[in-house]
Amino acid sequence: MTGPRSLFDKLWDSHVVADLSAGSALIAIDRIFLHERTGAAALNSLAEAGRTVADPARVFAVTDHIVDTRPGRTDQTLMPGGQAFVTETRAAAKAAGITLFDVNDPDQGIVHVISPELGIVLPGCTLIAPDSHTCTQGAFGALAWGIGSSEAEHAMATGTLRLNKPKSMLVKFSGKRPEGVTPKDMIMTLIARHGAAGGKGHAVEFAGEAVTALDMEGRMTLCNMATEFSAMSGFIAPDDKTFAYLEGRRYAPKNVLWEQAVAHWKTLASDRDADFDQHMEIDASKIEPMVSWGTSPEHSIGISDQIPGNAGQRPLEYMDLDKGQRLRGTPIDAAFIGSCTNSRLSDLRRASALLRGKTIAPGLKAICVPGSSRVKREAEAEGIDRLFREAGFEWRESGCSMCFYAGGESFDAGSRVISTTNRNFESRQGPNVKTHIASPETVVASALAGAIADPRELT
């Protein structure tokens, strides 16, 4: 292909094994990540069909979705029958010869947190996992997306997947992000303005001054919620921040291979005048802390705004809110910091700094779940866990925890929760639980006030 190319074109073209009919292609898959919720099923189904993993060195598995996060955990889980998911994945991973980050492995954690920590995701690679938030890892200039179990089987057996080529979209965040505004607020603003289906059928490149200013963990948060925008994936061109983050990681190239890799990675950027099927631009300097009011991430407003007059009746009834109502001051029952969106060390640092010397509101349930065992260790070495505990938060082992109800643990039925998770669907965090998604800073400010609060008032 000649002429200017977008980053997506470069990623796609370099992985085409064969062009197929009707705009689809057979795409080479560089990395595959499984978790215990579906990993054993995929591996066992592959074995029952008489097939083997083509290249076990490229396949990884982790216990993160169902595993208990309470201190002193074992294989047992709160979900009835959940222990079988853990033990069967362990047995299937061993039989297939793939790497497993097990319950108490020092590198265990949420898949989209540990893959970057270990240098498994690299610029220019394709990475898939049976989890819709795999797009998180596009922050490294990778093409990463979520798949189903049957697709995981095909990729493990052949190293390829058939894929319809999506359209391309450039989302530019211009301007400078104000103090107190986070990457979570940026992506929630995009979804609120353009809808949960705004990116449907597209691969989205995030760019602009406010994006390049983000550190790698902030970029991961931005890309994490590309799936809430219905995008096939979200990604950011790699730069010196990317290379500095990855250098020395366990699975990253070493020595001369590192130098060769960086030389190639520096070519992974959209060419000047590259064509995109769609463009969107948001002035980051006009963004404020965001909070969701309904049952979809698109149901979100700035902390100073009112619920819109055209808000749907069903989400309002479920959330027990009204049109024209302001969210600030709405009492909450619980607060949650965790998930693949906002559970990294920088998230916990910022949140704990706001907690220093303060205590959460009486009667409030508050939980902090680090995104990986490494994050937990590093946070404890800095005394971050002490700040959370002294403020009244529970401090947990790493995992997905109460991001969703599949692990067997939930908040009290009907309670109102403010959470750093990425989804606020009905009963996502327990029966009839009303979830407001927001940044770690907004969650902390609300936990201290006992009601939804503006974090800028704490600084």
From TrEMBL:
Pfam families: Aconitase (PF00330). Pathway: Amino-acid biosynthesis; L-leucine biosynthesis; L-leucine from 3-methyl-2-oxobutanoate: step 2/4. GO terms for biological process: L-leucine biosynthetic process. It comes from the Bacteria. It catalyses: (2R,3S)-3-isopropylmalate = (2S)-2-isopropylmalate. Its cofactor is [4Fe-4S] cluster. One of its GO terms (molecular function) is metal ion binding. It is an enzyme of class 4 (lyase). Keywords: 4Fe-4S, Amino-acid biosynthesis, Branched-chain amino acid biosynthesis, Iron, Iron-sulfur, Leucine biosynthesis, Lyase, Metal-binding. Its EC number is 4.2.1.33. The keyword 4Fe-4S applies. Residues 9-450 form the Aconitase/3-isopropylmalate dehydratase large subunit alpha/beta/alpha domain. Catalyzes the isomerization between 2-isopropylmalate and 3-isopropylmalate, via the formation of 2-isopropylmaleate. Heterodimer of LeuC and LeuD. PANTHER family: 3-ISOPROPYLMALATE DEHYDRATASE, HOMOACONITASE, MITOCHONDRIAL-RELATED. This is 3-isopropylmalate dehydratase. It comes from Parasphingorhabdus marina DSM 22363.
